[in-house]
Amino acid sequence: MACLFSLLIGLSLPIIKQIYLLKVSSTSQGQPATSVATELRFGVWGVLNEPSLFSDTAECFGPMLGYTVPADIIALTGVSTSIVNAVLKSLLVILVLHVVAAVLSLVTLASSLFLASHKLSILSLVFAIITAIVSSVVFAIDVAIVVVAKQQVPTLAANGLQFAIGWGNGPWLGLVAVILTWMAVIVLSMRACYCLGVRP
Question: Which residues neighbour 91 within 8 Å (Cβ) at sequence distance 6 or greater?
């Protein structure tokens, strides 16, 4: 299951549009009716220009490695360019780490199919530990991006910019993947060390 969750995050927006890391929404009041998007959703491979109430079309930028959002789209949504650029630079690192975590989860899953061999169970444990560490780092980075973006809201609100930062479902899928991977480390440790009633 951890492999599946890591893979889903690795294939997040715009490949899987329902999975994203964070959203930046305009909260300006009294704006005229427009077809311009009022929300940007950031995934690992791109960004989605979410439609407003007056439009049913969404525009995706990506999938690509190290994507950018056109400045005119950022300006029309009322979101700060500095926030968007900071998020995009951070997402390039996360892109690579999400894919690495998904591949490591797959390798751990494949190696755990051969637990009858003691040597392979130790190898599977090593892969599980590495996967758990990488997945934990990826989850921490996902959380840090959203928290840092949320901390910038009061500063930018003082400059007349009105928007809100929201959590996507990607970090929570990452949390589940981390928990499941650390549980696998515990179970594989019991198998490799023959402890807690596990016998050769």
Answer: 21, 42, 44, 67, 145
Distances (CA, A) of 78 to 7, 13, 39, 156: 32, 21, 9, 11
Distances (CA, A) of 50 to 12, 56, 72: 15, 9, 15
pLDDT classification of 182: cutoffs 50, 70, 90: very high
Distance of alpha carbon 175 from alpha carbon 12, whole angstroms: 15
Burial 31-68 (b: 16+ CB within 10 A, else e): eeeeebbbbbbbbbbbbbbbbbeeeeeeebbbbeeebe
Query: The whole model's pTM is what?
Result: 0.78
CATH number assigned to the domain covering 2-193: 1.20.140
In the beta sheet, which residues pair with residue 25?
Answer: 39, 164
Could you tell me which residue, 110 or 28, shows the higher pLDDT? 110
User: Three-state SS for 10?
Assistant: helix
Q: So where are the chain's domains?
A: 2-193
CA dist list (Å): 1 to 8, 16, 53, 102 = 11, 18, 36, 11
Nearest to 17 by CA among 48, 39, 63: 48
Give me the pLDDT at residue 54, please. 41
* Alpha helical stretches, state H, the chain: 2-10, 71-77, 81-111, 118-157, 170-193
